[in-house]
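Need residues for this backbone.
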């Protein structure tokens, strides 16, 4: 077999391959055997039809077509390996010559990973938020805990913000009660914003037995998006009673004996959270700086496929699960279709560029992934998917996704290398040391950059 490579552009090549006919022998034998099992010829047992009879009855061309289809993937793979290419996606194959008994020639155009030179990244500098936990932050955290231990008592007075009211609802559109517009014994905390817009104002000031009518745009159901006339009746008003903030509360709500110890623990947890957020911020900003240093050509077909995949996943998976259409999503986001397309393309380009650059850095730094690192990553992915580690591992193996997981871990390690070499300072001018940060956190940062933030935005839209 002879092959040659022509570079069409930095991300696409054309392979020209010429195969001596004798190298098709195995595929021709397999073609005759396959046809033998599929056809019946009077006078011959199934599977025992001579090749000359098959040629006469069904045509030599049919046999050649079957043989070539069987052989092409093997010859293409051999040519790719011989040229040491990193193909992306499926090739566009064109058979240029097929002479029975003489030669098979074909061309294959395919996108390839561009050659990327990783520049010196030791001069990268970024600024991140300082880790500051105020007394107000601690008090807010303790108050949230206190709220979880609140009790409610029925009261005979007008409802006010913070009260829990039990209500009946009836929604009408154009004077007709909606089939899904009636609800009874709904518990609602005034001021929580968890129900219809306008309901807080409607129920505030009402006592048990009182009712009010207001207009609100429906966010779901059979009349989603329409203005409805909503009648709300208060059947019960309950006031929340918060426990006293003292040592007894600390003992009830935590493992601590004193309120001061509980507050100290709250401060420590908040500091840890802010430290995690600071590390993530540093990783994101270092990655942005690294990508700015590298010029990366993006394969057009790969980009088009990635954009289409992102749109499909958003529309049919994320939004579909929430009962939202793409039109309603764009309305919530305040974007036009053109703006959405441009944003999706921008995210896809960043994702592809992130993979290319970090993969090149993995090769340059010769970064490997050991079993312990892969297992830790698998456990985290399993937890986020809602599957057990064994179930997730089985699905990964059966789907041939192990190399994908290895690649994710390796890219996280590559980003950790760049972050460790960068200078990171906080808004107070203090140098931030991230050398001991968990590499798995860097994996998560890379995944977010690669996958984009459509899921977050979908949740926000909901």
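Answer:
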């Amino acid at each position: 077999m002879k092959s040659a490579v022509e570079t069409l552009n930095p991300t696409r090549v054309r392979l020209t391959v010429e195969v001596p006919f004798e190298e098709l022998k195995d595929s021709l034998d397999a073609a005759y055997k396959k046809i033998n099992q599929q056809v019946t010829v009077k006078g011959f047992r199934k599977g025992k039809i001579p090749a000359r009879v098959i040629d006469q009855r069904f045509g030599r061309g049919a046999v050649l077509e079957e043989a070539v289809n069987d052989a092409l993937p093997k010859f293409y793979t051999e040519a790719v390996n011989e040229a040491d290419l990193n193909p992306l996606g499926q090739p566009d194959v064109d058979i240029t010559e097929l002479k029975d008994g003489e030669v098979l020639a074909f061309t294959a155009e395919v996108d390839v990973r561009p050659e990327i030179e990783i520049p010196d990244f030791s001069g990268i500098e970024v600024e991140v938020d300082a880790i500051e936990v105020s007394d107000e932050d601690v008090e807010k955290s303790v108050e949230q805990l206190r709220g979880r231990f609140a009790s409610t008592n029925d009261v005979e007075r007008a409802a006010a913000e913070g009260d829990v009211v039990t209500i009946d609802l009836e929604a009408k559109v154009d004077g007709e009660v909606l089939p899904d517009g009636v609800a009874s014994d709904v518990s609602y905390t005034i001021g929580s914003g968890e129900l219809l817009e306008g309901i807080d104002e409607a129920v505030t000031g009402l006592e048990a037995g009182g009712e009010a009518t207001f207009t609100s745009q429906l966010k779901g159901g059979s009349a989603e998006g329409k203005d409805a006339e909503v009648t709300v009746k208060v059947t019960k008003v309950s006031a929340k009673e918060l426990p006293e903030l003292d040592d007894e509360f600390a003992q009830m709500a935590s493992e601590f004996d004193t309120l001061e110890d509980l507050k100290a623990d709250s401060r420590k947890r908040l500091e840890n959270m802010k430290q995690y957020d600071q590390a993530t911020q540093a990783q994101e900003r270092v990655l942005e700086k690294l990508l700015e240093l590298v010029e990366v050509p993006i394969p057009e077909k790969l980009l088009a496929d990635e954009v289409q995949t992102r749109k499909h996943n958003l529309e049919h998976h994320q939004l579909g699960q929430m009962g939202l259409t793409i039109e309603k999503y764009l309305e919530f986001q305040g974007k036009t279709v053109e703006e959405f397309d441009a944003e999706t393309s921008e995210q896809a380009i960043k994702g592809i560029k992130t993979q290319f650059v970090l993969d090149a850095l993995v090769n340059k730094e010769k970064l490997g992934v050991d079993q312990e690192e892969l297992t830790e990553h698998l456990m985290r992915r399993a937890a986020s998917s809602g599957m057990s580690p064994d179930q997730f591992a089985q699905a990964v193996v059966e789907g041939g996704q192990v190399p994908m997981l290895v690649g994710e871990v390796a890219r996280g390690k590559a980003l950790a290398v760049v972050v460790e070499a960068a200078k990171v300072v906080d808004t107070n001018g203090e140098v931030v040391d991230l050398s001991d940060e968990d590499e798995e956190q860097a994996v998560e940062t890379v995944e977010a950059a690669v996958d984009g933030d459509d899921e977050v935005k979908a949740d926000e839209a909901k």
